[in-house]
């Protein structure tokens, strides 16, 4: 049985291969039961979340992710996401690999956003605005650069020092990155806006969005959280990773639906429909598109199979 640590997991999940693996899994007959989502009290701190996310390809692979999300861990110099993925044979049930869950989650999340942008962002998108400076920020910049010809990366964060650090790390990865302080101006100039924060209040205003922009909302993983305002969802063509997940957990959609601003019918398609060509995705250069991601177990399974095959020297693509 393979045991992959954080670095080994990262090396076993190259971006182009991972994006393709996630796309293939969205087209597949993967079985994905409703995930277990448990809030956990943390005395003296922000409540944590335990996630149990099972999925399987009948006769091929079975997997489950056990993940703990502790929002205050940055105060302890620890990762916010801690956990592991257990991959087993779908024929015998034998354990095949234990894969570090934080790195798997970060990379498959970014790969899923990049896959959505393949269908929803303009072909000539050159400027990406990254809102947020957490673990996902560099992953999102790198992954989006695989599916679109990005030339400039703008970094915005509440903490200026952290934003500068993220920009330096991006430049070390050969990305032309710079910090921006005026969020309204940055939003109005970007071709793709990727937002990965723990915000409970809107950061993005719909009035700021230029025609043709693609908005990638990755944070706000609870109904009480939000990264965009009502005008944003009014102006955008709405897409999700899965309807079941986004309509239950994605505050950027749950709140305006509850307020009567939009309805469930405003969601044009989920990612499986885009991957299977059941929906065309972007339909005009001026269309403003929004992709809301809350995560799906099939994305983890796709990454776990790819990591297992890469690390064991098997075929690179599931």
Automatic annotation (TrEMBL):
List the residue ranges forming a coiled coil, or say none: none
Can you tell me which family this protein belongs to? Belongs to the ornithine cyclodeaminase/mu-crystallin family.
Task: Answer yes or no on keyword NAD.
Answer: yes
A GO term (biological process) for this protein?
A: carboxylic acid metabolic process
Where do the TM regions start and end?
A: none
Per the UniProt record, the lineage of the source organism begins with: Bacteria, Pseudomonadati, Pseudomonadota, Alphaproteobacteria, Hyphomicrobiales
Q: Which InterPro entries match?
A: NAD(P)-bd_dom_sf, ODC_Mu_crystall, ODC_N
Can you say what this protein is called? Ornithine cyclodeaminase family protein
Q: Which keywords does this Swiss-Prot/TrEMBL entry list?
A: NAD
GO MF annotations in UniProt: oxidoreductase activity
What is a single cellular component term in the Gene Ontology annotation? cytoplasm
Note the Pfam families from the entry.
Answer: OCD_Mu_crystall
Q: Which PANTHER family match?
A: KETIMINE REDUCTASE MU-CRYSTALLIN
């Amino acid at each position: 049985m393979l045991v992959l640590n954080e670095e080994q997991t990262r090396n076993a999940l190259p971006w182009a291969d991972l994006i393709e693996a996630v796309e293939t899994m969205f087209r597949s007959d993967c079985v994905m039961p409703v995930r277990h989502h448990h809030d956990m009290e943390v005395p003296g701190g922000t409540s944590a979340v335990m996630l149990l996310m099972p999925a399987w390809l009948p006769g091929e692979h079975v997997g489950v992710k056990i993940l703990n999300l502790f929002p205050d861990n940055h105060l302890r110099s620890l990762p916010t996401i801690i956990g592991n993925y257990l991959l087993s044979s779908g024929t015998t049930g034998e354990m095949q690999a234990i894969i570090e869950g934080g790195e798997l989650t970060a990379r498959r999340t970014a790969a899923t956003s990049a896959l959505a942008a393949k269908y929803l962002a303009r072909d000539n998108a050159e400027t990406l605005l990254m809102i947020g400076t957490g673990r996902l920020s560099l992953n999102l910049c790198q992954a989006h650069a695989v599916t679109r010809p990005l030339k400039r990366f703008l970094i915005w964060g509440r903490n200026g020092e952290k934003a500068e650090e993220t920009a330096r790390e991006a430049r070390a990865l050969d990305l032309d990155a710079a910090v921006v302080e005026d969020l309204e101006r940055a939003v109005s100039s970007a071709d793709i806006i990727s937002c990965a924060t723990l915000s409970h209040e809107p950061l993005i205003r719909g009035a700021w969005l230029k025609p043709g922009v693609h908005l990638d909302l990755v944070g706000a993983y609870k109904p009480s959280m939000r990264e965009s305002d009502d005008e944003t969802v009014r102006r955008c063509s709405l897409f999700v990773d899965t309807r079941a997940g986004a309509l239950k957990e994605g505050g950027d959609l749950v709140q305006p639906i509850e307020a009567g601003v939009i309805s469930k019918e405003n969601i044009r398609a989920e990612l499986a429909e885009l991957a299977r060509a059941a929906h065309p995705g972007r339909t005009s250069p001026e269309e403003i598109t929004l992709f809301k991601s809350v995560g799906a177990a099939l994305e983890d399974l796709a990454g776990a199979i790819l990591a297992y095959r890469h690390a064991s020297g098997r075929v690179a693509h599931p």
